[in-house]
Amino acid sequence: MLGIKFYKADPSTFVMLFKNGKVTKQGAGTSFYYYAPSSSLVAVPLSSCEVPFAFRMKTEDFQEITLQGQVTFRIAEPQQAATMVNFTLDVAGRYVSEDPEKLEERVLRSVQVVIRNQIETMSLQQALRASRSLTELLQQNLPERHSLKNLGIDITEVSLTSIVPNPETAKALEADVREQLLKDADSAIYTRRLASIDQEKQVQERELETEKAINKQQQELEQQKLQAEQEKMRKKFAMDEEALTAKTEAERRRNELVELEAVNTRARSDAKAYDIRSQLQAYEAIDIERLKVMSMSGMKPETLIAQALENLTKGENRVGNLNISPELLQSLVR
């Protein structure tokens, strides 16, 4: 009504009201009335903006690659951005210029310049493995770009999601990598076989060493058995020799004893013979009849009777027939 308008900004929009070339009101999320015919309204968005990108570039060896990623930015200095970009709103609340829409292109252009400067110094294989280094480079260099500083833009996040070559190059790389993988697999198989052979050799050497040790122990055991058997035989021989020596000594002593007994027997016999000769020599001087009488002394009656009967059968007094009655015999015995 009569050109008076009411404007209410949200918290993510910085609003500036210009009148006669001067800022009369400004702030984020503010609201006010203004006279439209003599006022200019500038609205700078403060919210972060996520912009995806995909660039085709060539490496140092003239191989084409495609880089995809995303950059997130926000306007940190709205007053400075308003001096560089036309954020003026018309009566209907639309931007009167296409500059705000081209702000994303300016940010992407800065990202593209930083990436191209680095990719052109890399080979294809280096570029395909440079995702981390390129991300770090963007995070360091983008905030220092004068074009972005002049716009009051703050880069909050940047990331690379993929770096891929063209299909034909990818196939060639895949074939090359496949061949290298096959070579690596063959090398791994060869290395594994060598390791297996080496391990088998070590096992055989250990088994041979174990067998040698067992044979050595068996030889030592056999030698110990032989030594024990020899020691046993030596002890047995010594015992047999001692027994033979003892037996020989006993036989020698027995022979000495027999010889001594023989000597003693001869001596006793000689003594007895001498005694008998002496007695016989003494008896030769005595009359036979006396000897008989002497010999009869102390004899038993039956012996005397037998001697008397024997005398009756000898010599001149021999009797031809002799009858002895039982009574006479009993009286003679009594």
TrEMBL record:
<feature type="domain" description="Band 7">
    <location>
        <begin position="9"/>
        <end position="188"/>
    </location>
</feature>
<feature type="coiled-coil region">
    <location>
        <begin position="207"/>
        <end position="241"/>
    </location>
</feature>
<dbReference type="InterPro" id="IPR001107">
    <property type="entry name" value="Band_7"/>
</dbReference>
<dbReference type="InterPro" id="IPR036013">
    <property type="entry name" value="Band_7/SPFH_dom_sf"/>
</dbReference>
<protein>
    <submittedName>
        <fullName>SPFH domain-containing protein</fullName>
    </submittedName>
</protein>
<dbReference type="Pfam" id="PF01145">
    <property type="entry name" value="Band_7"/>
</dbReference>
<keyword id="KW-0175">Coiled coil</keyword>
